[in-house]
Amino acid sequence: EQTPEQMRVLRKDLQLIFQDPYSSLNPRMTVGQIIGEGLTSHGIFKKNDPAMKEYIFKVMQECGLDTYMFNRYPHQFSGGQRQRIGIARSLALNPRFVVCDEAVSALDVSIQSQILNLLSDLKKKAGLTYLFITHDLSVVKYISDRIAVMYLGNLVELADAEALFSDTLHPYTEALLSAIPTTEENNGGRERILLEGDIPSPVSPPSGCKFHTRCRYCQEKCQHEVPEWREISENHWVACHFPLHENNAPTGEVIE
């Protein structure tokens, strides 16, 4: 357990980029004040220190913001520019770990690509580690080195990005990947898997494997026993009694 003082030191290394660029910025603060707030709170600069302004200019430029924006307010910017301000605020403290909570979901597709490219470039330059939370599988494939798939609050599969897309082990992951839109004829030869039934309540989840009520490979064991979290191949983990590459059973009916 961390003391308040220890947590304060730790928070400098752990930063968050929020989902909504419209509500995550204080409308009464200028861009310079928004980016500089963390710097003064953590004692990196004193208020009104001339060196802080130069440092903020540098961070703004790294995040694709012109320095003339320093004294402007959030309402004067587009969604993409506001998200760049949020990114600059997070990265100004030189964090080691950044949580990106649906960081591009509120933006237009064209702006999404700009922000993703920016995040990717900053990751390489600063050696950052991102925890990127998203439901957009195209974003996942582009930005991630390793991918964790969750269902009803539980991890069901964890693997390197390439392995997860090419050698899927969990039936839920298989269904998710089949839903990725493609311009290829006949869905590029991939089967489109439609999950049946309703999503169970997280408050009162099914017994055994939580996914068994919607899984087309469900067998009796799945209804009663919680699957082990196990490593099937190097760095590829899954929570499933019958991982796909081991599953020779015929497709079954969904068990109510």
What features would you describe in this structure?
Helix content is 36%, strand content 14%. It folds into 2 domains: 4-144, P-loop containing nucleotide triphosphate hydrolases (Rossmann fold, 3-Layer(aba) Sandwich), CATH 3.40.50.300; 147-246, no CATH class. The chain has 9 helices and 7 strands. It is α/β, with parallel strands linked by helices and 256 residues long. The chain is elongated, with a radius of gyration of 22 Å. A 4-stranded antiparallel beta sheet has the order 4-5-7-6. Strands 1-2-3 form a 3-stranded parallel beta sheet.
Order of helices and strands: HEHHHEHEHEEHHHEE
Number of helices: 9
Structural class: alpha/beta
Give average pLDDT, whole number. Answer: 90
Q: Tell me the number of strands.
A: 7
Strand order of the largest sheet: 4-5-7-6
Shape: elongated
Instruction: Outline the low-pLDDT stretches.
Output: 248-256
Which CATH class of the largest domain? Alpha Beta
**What's the alpha carbon Rg, rounded to whole Å?**
22 Å
**Helical percentage:** 25-40%
Number of domain modules = 2
Tell me the span between the first and last alpha carbons. Answer: 43 Å
CATH architecture of the largest domain: 3-Layer(aba) Sandwich
Could you state the CATH homologous superfamily of the largest domain?
P-loop containing nucleotide triphosphate hydrolases
Largest sheet: 4 strands, antiparallel
Amount of beta strand: 5-15%
- CATH topology grouping of the largest domain: Rossmann fold
Q: What layout of secondary structure does this protein have?
A:
Blueprint: H1 4-13, E1 14-17, H2 31-41, H3 50-62, H4 79-91, E2 97-101, H5 109-126, E3 129-133, H6 137-143, E4 146-151, E5 154-160, H7 161-166, H8 171-178, H9 220-224, E6 229-233, E7 236-239
Parallel strand pairs: 1-2, 2-3
Antiparallel strand pairs: 4-5, 5-7, 6-7
Helix pairs in contact: 2-4, 4-5
Keywords: ATP-binding, Nucleotide-binding, Transport
Domain ABC transporter: 1-177
Organism: Candidatus Gemmiger avicola
